């Protein structure tokens, strides 16, 4: 019917007609509620991930400290050439290779620093693609036809 009525309906009449024939507003309300719920859940997940990373780091430090303490205890006890058996594991002492300790990073010569991998500047690429004439192109990149989306304002 909407197609048949065509230009006879103005914007408000068309919206009222669509709302009267469908439950568009209810569906939109449900979709908006779900979108807000998803955004809140994502925020919670990100916060939880940060907490888990922090906890993992603390556990990693505890593990290193316990290994060091066991090694020192074996050195003091003169058991560096033996394997100590416990009900849970066999503990053996071994030397480790020397590790680098940074005393003052600013004094280290630049040859020992890695350069970051090249990162694509998508903003510059997009601007260059927009500025092209129809017969020009940039290998490996094109502009799509765009799309559509909705914005939510909750304030």
Tell me the quaternary state: single chain
Q: What is the global morphology?
A: elongated
Strand order of the largest sheet: 1-2
Strand tally, please? 2
Mean pLDDT: 86
Structural class: mainly alpha
Strand content is under 5%
**First-last Cα distance:** 37 Å
Rg result: 32 Å
Order of helices and strands: HHHEEH
Distinct helical segment count: 4
| Sheet with the most strands, sense and barrel status | 2 strands, antiparallel
* Low-pLDDT runs: none
The level of helicity is 40-55%
Brief synopsis:
By secondary structure, the protein is mostly helical. 50% of the residues lie in helices and 4% in strands. The protein has helices spanning 2-5, 11-21, 24-76, 122-131, and strands spanning 83-85, 90-92.
């Amino acid at each position: 019917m909407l197609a048949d009525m065509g230009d006879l309906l103005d914007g408000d009449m068309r919206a009222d007609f669509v709302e009267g024939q469908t439950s568009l507003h209810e569906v939109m309300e449900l979709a908006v509620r779900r979108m807000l719920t998803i955004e809140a859940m994502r925020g919670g997940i990100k916060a939880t991930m940060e907490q888990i990373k922090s906890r993992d780091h603390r556990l990693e430090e505890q593990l290193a400290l316990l290994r060091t303490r066991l090694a020192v205890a074996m050195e003091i006890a003169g058991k560096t050439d033996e394997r100590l058996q416990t009900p849970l594991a066999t503990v053996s002492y071994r030397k480790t290779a020397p590790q680098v300790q940074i005393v003052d990073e600013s004094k280290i010569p630049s040859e020992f620093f890695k350069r970051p991998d090249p990162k694509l500047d998508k903003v510059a690429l997009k601007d260059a693609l927009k500025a092209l004439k129809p017969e020009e192109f940039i290998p490996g990149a094109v502009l799509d036809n765009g799309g559509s989306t909705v914005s939510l304002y909750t304030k």
